[in-house]
Inverse folding.
């Protein structure tokens, strides 16, 4: 019997390895690409189809990473290698939606259809919303999330014209940014950098023009806790000190308040933390300001903009006038609790004179307190507390309860799996884990075999956008962008960029209709 079982298992394994396994990956950000890469390594019969709601791939590498950090974007070369595998296809400009979403003019495909048509579906659709400050007035003109602001300067089609409706940099003098992560510092840097130093980057041309007319004088970056808990990294902070015409200010009394016993313990045996604290202290003493300013046409000693990094404050009120932001009221905090668990609590007001509160004037308020993932619909399990899809080693499970059963054929990766934190490289071990789970399930015969996946099979769903002019191949549809067509977009953006003086890396195309036109030319 044991021998018979062994043969049976070996047979199942051989069949699993021989037959085609089509995997759908929802989203073409780093996590989608890395997971696809490791899935292709499972065996040579694995095929991957990407579904991406934009006509362009790369997720936050295109619409998040700052334009003046081109070295970070070289990771696209790795992703290109994945996309160019003959076993990979991209269906760009196709949004995956919940099964209950009514069919619309947009190119959509439901989760149900995907799950029926693919051996496995990997959710890699990242974060599409923001953590709120939970203050009245967040919808005022001049208040926006860092996600909106970053998408704007990176030319994301949904945000490309934000400066025509949400803010006007030619009238903004004072900016307050709530939050002290690297994204907050990206926003501060882009707002204060000399526009000539952004000219050659792939920043959206519209955003660059707006920055050329900017009247911004001061940017204040707020943190609830002290300097020893700063969330940004040293590289990003140092960059602020190296911009011409920009002075970084930090109040030494705030640093004094942050040096609690618990904070000092947090620094023990933590060299990276110690180095960043040293830099913060040097800035507060003025000994680091503009230490390596680049030389440009301007007198580098003339301070045109200040960036103030302010610690131990919590916003309590957005002050507006006729629905436009005018100021942010903050209260002073103090730190309590043990090392690594310290909390910021408001300092009690003394008497009638409420000197624990302060009003910071601003005509632009950027909330940079976190990106947030959203659920795709009721058919996919979702944890509303952590804003992630519940999973075990990358397998989606029914709920966040321990021992919850896996949802057959459904996997998750990236920010949607871990929460919206971590750098591009953090997605690698995460993607490996998800791909390993798919490989195990495939070898165990848990995943269904599919000779023909969606769009090539006779059972493919007939959605309006799938009716191509040729009537046969959905990839020839006028609105679905294949990888080869995306490359046309990339070449055109580079060509347009080369017509600028000095040349831009790319002149990004920011409207869906134009992206499609170029793709289909
Ligand atoms: C502003 C910012 C700057 C950053 N800078 C750096 C940096 O300099 N260096 C670094 O290492 N890391 C950086 N990161 C972190 C890095 O970008 C993330 O770790 C990474 O992008 C997360 O990958 P992801 O694939 O989970 O999500 P994403 O990159 O967001 O990709 C998700 C993809 O899914 C698509 N999608 C969404 N919904 C759907 C749907 N319904 N159907 C189909 N497709 C869908 C989206 O269009 C997108 O292409 C930065 C992050 C931010 C926010």
């Amino acid at each position: 019997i044991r021998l018979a079982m062994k043969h049976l298992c070996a047979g199942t394994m051989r069949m699993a390895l021989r037959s085609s396994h089509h995997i759908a990956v929802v989203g073409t950000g780093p996590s989608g690409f890395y997971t696809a890469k490791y899935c292709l390594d499972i065996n040579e019969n694995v095929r991957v189809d990407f579904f991406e709601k934009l006509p362009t791939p790369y997720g936050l590498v295109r619409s998040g990473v700052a334009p003046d950090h081109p070295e970070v974007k070289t990771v696209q070369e790795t992703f290109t290698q994945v996309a160019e595998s003959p076993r990979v296809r991209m269906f760009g400009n196709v949004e995956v939606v919940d099964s209950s979403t009514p069919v619309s003019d947009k190119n959509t495909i439901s989760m149900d259809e995907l799950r029926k048509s693919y051996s496995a579906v990997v959710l890699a659709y990242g974060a599409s919303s923001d953590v709120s400050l939970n203050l009245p007035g967040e919808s005022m003109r001049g208040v926006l999330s860092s996600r909106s602001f970053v998408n704007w300067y990176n030319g994301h089609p949904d945000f490309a014209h934000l400066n025509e409706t949400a803010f006007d940099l030619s009238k903004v003098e004072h900016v307050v940014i709530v939050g002290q992560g690297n994204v907050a510092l990206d926003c501060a840097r882009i707002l204060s950098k000399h526009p000539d130093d952004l000219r050659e980057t792939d920043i959206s041309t519209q955003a660059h023009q707006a920055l050329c007319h900017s009247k911004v004088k001061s940017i204040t970056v707020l943190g609830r806790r002290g300097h020893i808990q700063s969330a940004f990294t040293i590289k990003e902070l140092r960059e602020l000190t190296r911009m011409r015409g920009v002075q970084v200010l930090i109040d030494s009394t705030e640093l004094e308040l942050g040096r609690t016993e618990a904070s000092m313990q947090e620094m023990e045996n933590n060299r990276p933390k110690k180095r960043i604290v040293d830099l913060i202290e040097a800035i507060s003493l003025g000994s680091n300001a503009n230490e390596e300013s680049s030389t440009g046409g301007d007198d580098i000693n003339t301070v045109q903009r200040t960036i103030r990094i302010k610690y131990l404050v919590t916003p309590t009120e957005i002050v507006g006038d006729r629905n436009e932001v005018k100021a942010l009221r903050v209260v002073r905090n103090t730190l309590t609790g043990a090392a690594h668990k310290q909390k910021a609590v408001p300092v009690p007001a003394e008497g009638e004179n409420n000197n624990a509160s302060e009003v910071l004037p601003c005509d632009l308020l950027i909330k940079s307190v976190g990106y947030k993932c959203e659920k795709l619909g009721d058919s996919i399990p979702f944890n509303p507390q952590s804003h992630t899809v519940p999973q075990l080693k990358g397998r989606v499970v029914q709920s966040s309860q321990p021992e919850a059963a896996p949802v057959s054929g459904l996997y998750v990766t990236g920010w949607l799996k871990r929460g919206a934190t971590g750098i591009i490289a953090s997605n690698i071990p995460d993607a490996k884990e998800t791909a390993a789970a798919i490989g195990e399930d495939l070898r165990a015969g848990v995943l269904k075999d599919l000779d023909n996946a969606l769009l090539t099979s006779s059972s493919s769903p007939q959605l309006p956008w799938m009716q191509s002019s040729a009537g046969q191949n959905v990839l020839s549809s006028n609105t679905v962008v294949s990888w080869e067509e995306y490359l046309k977009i990339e070449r055109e953006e580079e060509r347009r960029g080369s017509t600028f003086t000095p040349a831009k890396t790319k002149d990004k195309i920011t409207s869906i209709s134009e992206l499609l036109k170029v793709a289909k030319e």
User: Anything to note?
Assistant: The longest helix spans residues 2-18.
